[in-house]
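User: I've been going back and forth on whether these two constructs are worth ordering. Before I decide, could you fold them both?

Assistant: Sure. I'll take them in the order you sent them. The first construct and its structure tokens:
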Amino acid sequence: MSIPSFIEGYGAVRLFRGAFAAPRDSLRAGARIRAQHPGEGKVLPSIREAIRACGLKDGATVSFHHHLRNGDDVLRAVMQEIAALGLRDIRVAASSLFPVHAPLVEHIRSGVVTRLATNYVTGPVAEAIAAGALSTPAVLQTHGGRARAIEAGELPIDVAFVAAPAADSFGNLNGVDGPSACGPLGYPMVDARHAARVVAITDALSPHPLASIDIAQDLVDFVVPVDSIGDATKIVSGTTRVTEDPVGLAIAATAARVIDASGLLVDGFSFQTGAGGISLAVAQDVAAIMRDKGVVGGFAAGGVHQGIVAMFRQGLFRTLFDVQCFDLAAVASYREDRGHVAMSASLYANPASKGALVNHLDCMVMGAAEVDLAFNVNVTAVNGGAIIGGSGGHADTAAGAKLALVTTKLAAGGAPKIVDAVECVTTPGETVDAVVTEAGVAVNPRRADLAARLAAAGLPLVDIARLRDLAADRTKGAPRPQVDPQGRIVAVVEYRDGTVIDVVRQRRN
């Protein structure tokens, strides 16, 4: 897709030039600090009072995190008060947005919110963006790209609002105590360190000090106790369960064989999967191989779910590095298990850091909405501009892992998933090593070494173009809605280094 050199409402475009083309050296921006004098308290009676105390003005940027996922109620509550105070032209910088954040749509339509940056978005907010409701293009980042942008000063935050499952009166916060426990607070760790002001909103205010601390008091300006910050049971999404579909299970079994044949599945093995049904099944199959071979991995990482927790508790990994929990079993493990440790989004995936953990992954297993002949992957927009999510950690982990595997069926919902060219590039093909389907495994031509290993192991190798043809046959060549090349740009897709890898244009009526 053609990307202009200047996008109205976004600015000058730095075009994507390659996954590793960014300069190694970068600058870290400082944070504005508000000193607390002896005797000053931090606890305020309401969100409105906290907004006033922070001096929030028109045009400001406020940030939120998504550890409560579809159970979060903090963004709604804060934006309701911002609107009631008459503030306008606000930029919302949220690590992810879910259907529960539907009230944000009205703030977009009324002009309270005119700018939006997020790593993942589904539900009514995604639909509103695709329809052109936002006056400027939304910026879709990666998890690591967001952390990099905040630390570099490219995404300055005026007030970070942290949904804190537990807080003490001095402003220490954690995610393991209280009725809304959600696990490690990996995303707001970055926001809290770099925002001009930090407000913790909690439904479990404790005397000082908390026994466990994710974000320390020296980073927090104010604490607001409320009745509820949300519903932690809704951390679990409908897709966070092992697939029972025979085709999906067969794909998972093949993917586990690919990992075994890669030569990476030895002591010290490091691993991450997404939370989709096939990815969870891959974790189960890899666990069985590790037990059979007596392999003890070094670490598993990322968003942690019950499948990875089970492997850890079986002794298959020495450590879990956790940026967010995908289910309550992971929350319990973070609370109880020595060796299950928190990491910030920056430690996880910031490409400008001194040691992003993704760079030490042996294997990452991820899904796809579309894969094309160049191995580019789309998990952002389909059907002529319908926004379905975004990168999250997809592009970050693909760039860092020694083996980046995409698992996908050939077709779904009557549409092919292996195509000539993806509608929107989320993850560049140069960072994807192989695609595993029910019809076989396509290996990126860049990885002749991997293809040789898989062939020697008897795995069914097939050219990506053959998979494209099979996918078309399955769907009988069903036409796909096309992107309107003249449509207004409603979202800018940034690669992890801040360059623009693609855009999303407004859907045709």
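The second construct, handled the same way:
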Amino acid sequence: MTQFVTREQALLAAAKKLDISPSKYKQAIERFNSMKLHLEQGNYPGSFQIPEVYLQGSFKLGTEIRPFKNCKDADYDIDLVCRLGHLKQNTLPSNVKSQVGDRIKENGTYLRLLDDEGKRCWTLNYAEEDGVGFHMDVLPSVTENSLLARQHSVAATNKDQDSNFTWTTSNPKGFAEWFYEKNGTAFDREKLIQKQQLFNNQRNLYNSVDDVPNIHVKTPLQRTIQLLKRHRDVRFSQSEIEDYKPISMVISVLAAQCYQNESTIFETLQNLVANLERHSNQLNNHFIYNQAYVGSLYSLITRTADGKWSIQNPTNPEENFADRWHEDEHARAKAFFLWVSWLRDDLININQIVEHDLFTKSLVDVYKTPNLPVLNFQVAHKDSGNWPITINPQYSATIKGKYETNVFWKNFKSGQPLLKGKRLKFKLNTDVPQPFSVFWQVVNTGQEARDSGQLRGEISEHSGNNSSDIFRTESTSYTGDHWVEGFVIKGGRCVARTGEFVVSIRDTY
């Protein structure tokens, strides 16, 4: 039976599915502590003190999610800073980078886990255990001593594509303190209840309520950031503008700046999206910079007088998170505000009562490829084309399917179970050169379709133009196993066909 819940319950359920489990968090912290001790005990010529090693990023802020890449869950990222005791003016970034890397390599286990040298970090890839893996990114740095530097600022190493090293200023520890301040009232409101609940469920991990780590206490702000990051990952995954998707730091900064201690995730999202939509006016081609608007109307995101963009790090005035938004004709700015419109469609304009499982699955679950149903594709009511089907091996055609959820259009695979009453969209891709024609075949099976007189099997010509976007829309109306197939016709012959894309419709999952 389909379960319906309130909008807030659905949002919370979706966010909870993004949490790292207490046992996996414990494992991640044990690995961090081991690396911390190893780095602290190293020898770094020219350094005048023991390195300071600390967490940064989502594991520090309590906004961790499992990354989503190539339409599947990826490894958790554990980000840490290693600040050596060099004076910035007396050393080179290349020296700091190599010293940290050399120390990591002195441990045989770490050497085996070490990836190729990254632009900023040294990365270790831990093998999956119980289906969960970790990346550990170690950021080499020294104390930043510029005149504009804030407390805790660091100068981190940066290596460009030509292998030239520079310093880049950041302040992860100061940012964490700023974030905690923004989140403090809500955290104090939530911590006792949530820690007690987790302690009751995980007595094998903790000796007392006080032993429950703060990361497992989630405020509406932290839940919102988790959902925002996951929504971004899923929405941009394998899209043409994936390279321009908003970075996590931009999401965290803007969400924290907008947070007004709302008590629900939905109210937090609603306030944030309304604030961000106001800033989208700056994309207008006729936008004129006005200094009076900078501190009021466009206080979060500013398009500057030279046409560039600014999202300032509140704890490091030298760091602009939107410093590349003007590149490629403002591609990152356009992608950001497009995403904001998706947020309104997918997370704000949802009913007060929603379908629990489908909402949660569409946002956070990744379907495993199911075994295809055992089907007889040669059913009696299936039409045959009136052209020779002799496939030219130099051409091919494929179908990609999407279904509409309470959240957004989501990819699905051939044979994946779907619920009834959902809109479907199929896209045909082919390498056959123009001109050509496309024909579709839709075949229904099952008793429900038979009783309704809908055992379809017709072949029909595609009605749109044969551009790169060849779509067909259908709906999930009848339980049973059905399929869609596309044929590409050129010179009176079928030169490519997609094969059957199975649509398996169920009353429940």
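Notes on the second construct follow. The first strand starts at residue 4 and ends at 6. Confidence is low (pLDDT under 50) at residues 366-374.
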